[in-house]
Amino acid sequence: MELQRRSGVALWRQIQDWLEYRIKEGELKPGSRLPTEQELAAQFGVNRHTVRRALSLLAEKDLVRTEQGSGSFVREQLIDYAVGTRTRFHENLLRQERKPRGELISSGVIPATSLVARVLELEKGDPVLVLETLGEADGVRICLASAHFPQSRFPGLDDLYRQTGSVTQALRHFGVKDYRRRRTQISGRLPTAREARILAQPRTRPILVTESVNVDTRDWPIEYCESRFCADRVQFVIET
């Protein structure tokens, strides 16, 4: 594209319109990285301030997102993440024809804190197995979870998760054929440096945090989980 310098339309507006057209026509795919400010400035023969203004307007229209140190990307369509009495990570994504993936980052046995002991109906200090997992949709990182399970009931659950990539499938090994969500608490905050690094997002961008308790068919607590979701990639849909 060649800019029309005497058309009466600002150069930054022409660059914005050109990029916006390519995004909406699908020439620039969701999640794809845009050329750098320097590359766009050289392409159009303008200064970086002109390019920066065009990109900032695209960001205001929620068409692109900027990651500090990484560049600007075409914004992905928000994922509808259903939260209800039967919340399942894999099912939520498969329902939208997205490819789910779970990765075990770390696991270990720790003493139950007062909070974890209360919600899992244990004694404070009882051993709990903690699985820290990373959830992806179509190869894009969307959530980081820390799930706590009674160690006495689910020994080796981390190894099973490592094999299957699914908590639901791992629990079936222990006879838990189904479970439901007893409670979900949702809040928002800025991520820690580690959370931002793992989720591949800036520390200045908020995350959505859920604290949830799952119980089996006998109403026995089996899991307490804190999940941190990328707020610009996921939106919650509350099912009643």
Write the topology of this structure.
Layout: H1 11-24, H2 37-44, H3 48-60, E1 64-67, E2 71-74, E3 79-83, H4 89-94, E4 100-111, H5 114-119, E5 127-137, E6 140-150, H6 157-164, H7 167-172, E7 179-189, H8 193-199, E8 207-216, E9 221-230, E10 234-238
Parallel strand pairs: 3-10
Antiparallel strand pairs: 1-2, 4-5, 5-6, 6-9, 7-8, 8-9
Concise summary:
The protein is an alpha+beta fold. The protein is built from 8 helices and 10 strands.
Provide a descriptive summary of the structure in words.
- The protein is α+β, with helices and mostly antiparallel strands and 240 residues long.
- The protein contains eight helices and ten strands.
- It has two domains: 11-74, Orthogonal Bundle (Arc Repressor Mutant, subunit A); 79-238, Chorismate lyase-like (Chorismate lyase, 3-Layer(aba) Sandwich), CATH 3.40.1410.10.
- It has helices at residues 11-24, 37-44, 48-60, 89-94, 114-119, 157-164, 167-172, 193-199; strands spanning 64-67, 71-74, 79-83, 100-111, 127-137, 140-150, 179-189, 207-216, 221-230, 234-238.
- The longest helix has 14 residues, at 11-24.
- Strands 4-5-6-9-8-7 form a six-stranded antiparallel sheet. The protein has a two-stranded antiparallel ribbon with strand order 1-2. It has a two-stranded parallel ribbon with strand order 3-10.
